[in-house]
Amino acid sequence: MRHLSFFLSNLTNFLNFLFPFLIKIPSKSLPVQIKTMVSLASRSGRHLQRYEQGYRLVVGCIPYRYKKSQEPSSVEELEVLVISAQNGQGMLFPKGGWENDESMEEAAKRETEEEAGVIGVVGDKLGPWHYQSKRSCIMHKSYMYPLLVKEELDCWPERENRERRWVTINEAREVCHNRWMREALEEMVRLHPQAQS
Fold first, then answer.
1. Nearest 5°: CA angle at 57, between 53 and 63?
2. Which of 26, 34, 91, 134 is the most buried (most CB within 10 A)?
């Protein structure tokens, strides 16, 4: 049993080391076994975290799809993916810290894959929004990207800690507990033709 514990802890460290390199490889190029292992490793810690003028930089995505087809015809046919907060209270869109070794877009896609288990194509950047962390006095500057979902993963790093749910725009307005995220949703619907035409 001791050897198994040692093996698993070293495997996690090894996957955390490989993750920044493997995430840059298109997922279709990876064998299924490696793709599954990479999807089970999540970044942790804040040692690479970006700050700007005292604000912690946060990025994320508003994952969306069309109910009936990939041909959009109205906002009513648009669904967005919300996930449960880590504490289990409320729903939100996937987001997290933007780290020094990645672009803003890469960070948004990584956070979305880690927290919601979806992969897709990002649209134009939305934001910024400024807010104070509920857990500390740290101020955040956040940006969001619309993400047209192309793939839903069966296994992803935070699968055990989060529920994911497809909802309509109106349902998202009701269940999303962060005001700035609701504002991001409204900006996506208002400014991006792929989300409203």
1. 155
2. 91
